[in-house]
Amino acid sequence: MGLPFVVLNMVAAVMFKNLDIPNAEIAFWTSLIMWPWTIKFLWSPFIEIFRTKKFFVVSTQILSGLLFGIGALALHIPDCFAIMIALFAVVAFSGATHDIAADGVYMSELSGRDQSRYIGWQGAFYNLAKLVATGGLVGLAGVLAHTFAGSDTPARQHFVDAWMIVLAVIGAILLLLGAWHTRIVPSSEKPASGARSVKEGLNGLRAVITAFFTKRYIWYYIAFIILYRLGEGFVMKIVPLFLMSDRGSGGLAMTNEQIGLYYGTCGAAAFLLGSLLAGYFTAHRGLKRSLFTLCCIFNIPFAAYALLAWLQPESMVVIAGAIIVEYFGYGFGFVGLTLFMMQQVAPGPHQMAHYAFASGIMNFSVMLTGAMSGYLCDALGYGSFFAAVMVATIPAFLITWFVPFTHPDTKAEQIAQETQQQYEQTDNQGTTAAPYALGGETSGEQ
Predict the structure, then answer these.
(1) Contact 304/325 with Cβ under 8 angstroms?
(2) What confidence tens digit (pLDDT) does each residue in 314-323 have?
(3) In terms of C-beta density within 10 A (0-12 exposed, 13-18 middle, 19 or more buried), how is residue 406 classed?
C-alpha cells in the first residue's frame, strides 16, 4: 500500500528538485496528482460488487509496477515533467484502488480486537515504504548520480540516468510483490457470480454516500479528520525541499545521500518504532483514553523543523535528532486517526466504502494544504513558514479534546451497549431478557 503513495507524495519531490523544477511547481503538481486518494470512495462500491478484494489488491500492484517501468523510460524525453506527472496520476489511481481493496481485506479478515492489536504493525509496514523509498531509493539516486558524474554528460543528465534506474527498481519491487501476493494474501470471500450492472454500482454509491452523511456526529468527524493532519499537510512537501535548499535561501544544503540516511533511514526507523508502540499503547488503554495524547505526540514535534530553519545547525547529529523526534511522533500519533476512522467512522453495512470515504477526506486535507504549501513557503521563507504550521496545529488539539465517540471503545463497553439495546427491545415488547444468556451470546459473537 505504501510504496506508490510515498513515491508520488515524497520521493517525486526530491526527483523533480534534482531535475531543477521550481519548488512551487513541485509542491503543487505532486499534491494535485494525489487526488485519487481523496475521491477513491467514488469507485469503492464497484470493488465490492466485482470480483474479490484480493483480485484488486494484486492487479493494481502489477499495474503500478508496469507504469513505474514506463516512467523510467519517459525520463529521457526532453521536458518530461508533464509526461511524468500524467504517468504518476495514473499510478495514483491504481494505488488508491489498491488501498480500498487492501483496507477491505484487513477489515474483513480480522476481528475488531485483532484490528486494534495489529494496527501498529499495519501502519509500520505501510510506512516501511518510507524506509525503502525516502531512505534507500533516494540515497541510491544520489550514489548513482555521483557515479555517473565522471562522464562528460551534463549534471542534470546524471540525475536523469540515476532516477531512471530507481524508478525501474520501484517497478520491479511492485511486480514481485504482486506475484507473491497472488499466493499469500488471504481471501475468505467468494467471487461475485456474473457481471453486475453499472446501475447497481451507482445505486450502491448513492446508498454509501447517504448512509455516510447520516451517521451520528458525522460533520464533527469530518472536521476532526481534516484538522488532525492539517499541520502535516503543510510540511510534507516542503521538508525535503527545505533540507536540499542551499543555506543562503534558508535551507540545510543536504545531499541526496544525507537525506536518504537521516530523513529516510533514521526517520523512517523512528516512524516504525512509533507505530508499533502506539498500537500496543492504544490497545492497552483504549482509543478514547489515548486519542488526545496521540494527537499531541503527532503534532507537537513539527516544531523540530521550525527550530532547524531558525538555527540552521551545521551538525548532522542535531539535524538527524530533530528528524527522528518528528518521525517518531508522526508514527505514534498517526495510529490514532487511522484507528478512529476504522472504529468510529467506518462501522456499519458499508464498512470498507465508508473507511475509503473517511480516508479520502483525510487525504483531501493533505492534498489541499500541500498544493498551497510551496507558494506559502516562497512568500514567508522557511523559518516563518514552519512557525505558521505550528499555529495551524492548534485546531487539532481543540477538536480532539471534545470529539465524541459513537461506538464503544472496548470489548466490555461493546457487550454492555449490545446488552442494553437488547433490554430496550425486549422492554418495548413487554418481555424479560436473560442477562447471562445475552452476555454469553454477545461474548461468543465477539
Answers:
(1) yes
(2) 888 899 899 8
(3) middle
Of 1, 25, 248, 4, nearest in space to 13 by CA: 25
Q: Is 207 exposed, middle or buried (0-12, 13-18, 19+ CB in 10 A)?
A: middle
pLDDT digits (tens, 9 = 90+) for 160-188: 889 999 999 999 999 999 999 988 887 77
- In tens, the pLDDT along 17-36 reads 888 888 889 999 998 998 88
Greatest CA separation for the chain: 90
The reported pLDDT for the residue numbered 412 is: 45
pTM reported for the whole predicted model? 0.71
Distance CA 263, CA 441 (A): 51
Say which residue the cell 505558521 belongs to: 388
CB 30 within 8 A of CB 8: yes
Buried b / exposed e over 62-89, threshold 16 CB at 10 Å, is bbbbbbbbebbeebeeeebeeebbebbb
Which triple of cell numbers denotes residue 136?
534507500
Is 441's pLDDT higher than 70? no
Pair 282, 119: CB distance under 8 Å: yes
Question: Which domains occur in the chain, in start order?
Answer: 2-184+198-409 (1.20.1250.20), 412-445 (no CATH)
Backbone angles phi, psi at 130, to 5 degrees: -70, -35
H runs (alpha helix) in 185-312:
198-213, 218-228, 230-244, 256-258, 267-285, 287-299, 303-311
Neighbours of 387 (CB within 10 A): 16
Closest CA to 374 of 22, 8, 5: 22
What is the C-alpha to C-alpha distance for residues 268 and 189, in angstroms, rounded to an integer? 35
pLDDT in tens, 394-419: 999 999 999 999 887 755 455 445 44
Task: Please state, as a whole number, how many other Cβ atoms lie within 10 Å of the Cβ of residue 206.
Answer: 11
